[in-house]
Amino acid sequence: MPDAPQPGGMSPVTTLSAEQAALADATLARLNFDLPPDRIAQTGAEPRDASRLMVVGQTVTHHIFRDLPKLLRPGDLLVFNESRVIPARVMARKPVDAAGHGGGQVEVLLLREEDLPDLSAEHGPHLWSAYLKPARRAGNELWLGDGEHRQRARVVGQLEDGARILAFDRDIKPHLDDIGRLPLPPYIDPGSSDDTWRERYQTVYARAPGSVAAPTAGLHFTPDLLAALDAAGVERTTVTLHVGAGTFKPVTGPVAEHTMHAERYSVTPGAAAAINRARASGRRVIAVGTTTVRTLESAWDGTQVRAGEGDTRIFITPGTPVNVPDLLITNLHLPGSTLLLLVTAFAGEDRIRAAYDAALHGEYRFYSLGDAMLLTNVRGTQAAGSGTR
């Protein structure tokens, strides 16, 4: 099977220097920690904004997430990632031949639609990258789902990371709600039903379908909390970054060898204008989640945030300046992860070490459904929590 061409038009890619990679390796080694399995949240707080919130600046203080309006200032700008998780995990079967052989089951994790002109010319426009399990025995043809929503896919290429390119006979997106399940993180027990997760593993403001993992910092917000922030004079805008499966991929070797998967992002003219106005007037920009940070930094042209869309593989590690957001709302991340590197680049290693020590000793819950932190950008002087009215 020939390799598929890699998607074109990437912007931007961060290639680490040897010095940056060595610093990242050393940082992950110093920040390594053991996490008891019972500290990995299996369910979210109810209500969502009852989760804990650690404010990390010159000191560490402890709050409930619904306290956020008291911790921010009128005129602060919250930037949300409005991507919506799609039911991207689909069970498929291999075709059965005339002798009755075949029919083996294959798990398909759809990653994203791909724009690959050479393959589209030969196989049609409905191309997706996907991880298959088992990949080597998947064959060249799969049938996803059952009944009227049954979809045929042909395996027509392979990407560098082992993902296969699937060519569908028709647009599969309208059928995913019927044949797919939400792709929960591997450390969460999905149970036998997808019904609860279809609501709980989405932010309340999710609009644009395309992610295979939730932008989890946003899971703490409720309609009532958003209304309270509005009433407090906190402004908000949205961007989009469709979170890929690479968000689950730990750094298993030298950081220099870690591959950042491409993710599609977009910033509307209205969002770019709101962010640039806030910065120009000295108001704080607050990124809700690491995916929002990656979007803003990908859209940064050196002086302002540019409207537009593209693919990003940006890799933010210690020593990399984070230019746009002043504050970051984020969950507690895995040791040995690119997300831990990002928050260390944002807030500084000493503060991240203090925050994680406090979380480990203070019964905070970790990962996608766990508790949150409010971090101050190490470059800034406008500390988190310093804006109480």
From TrEMBL:
Pathway: tRNA modification; tRNA-queuosine biosynthesis. Belongs to the QueA family. The gene is queA. This is S-adenosylmethionine:tRNA ribosyltransferase-isomerase. It comes from the Bacteria. Transfers and isomerizes the ribose moiety from AdoMet to the 7-aminomethyl group of 7-deazaguanine (preQ1-tRNA) to give epoxyqueuosine (oQ-tRNA). InterPro entries: QueA, QueA_dom1, QueA_dom2, QueA_sf. Monomer. It is found in: Cytoplasm. Keywords: Cytoplasm, Queuosine biosynthesis, S-adenosyl-L-methionine, Transferase. The keyword S-adenosyl-L-methionine applies. PANTHER family: S-ADENOSYLMETHIONINE:TRNA RIBOSYLTRANSFERASE-ISOMERASE (PTHR30307:SF0). It catalyses: 7-aminomethyl-7-carbaguanosine(34) in tRNA + S-adenosyl-L-methionine = epoxyqueuosine(34) in tRNA + adenine + L-methionine + 2 H(+). HAMAP family: QueA (MF_00113). Its EC number is 2.4.99.17.
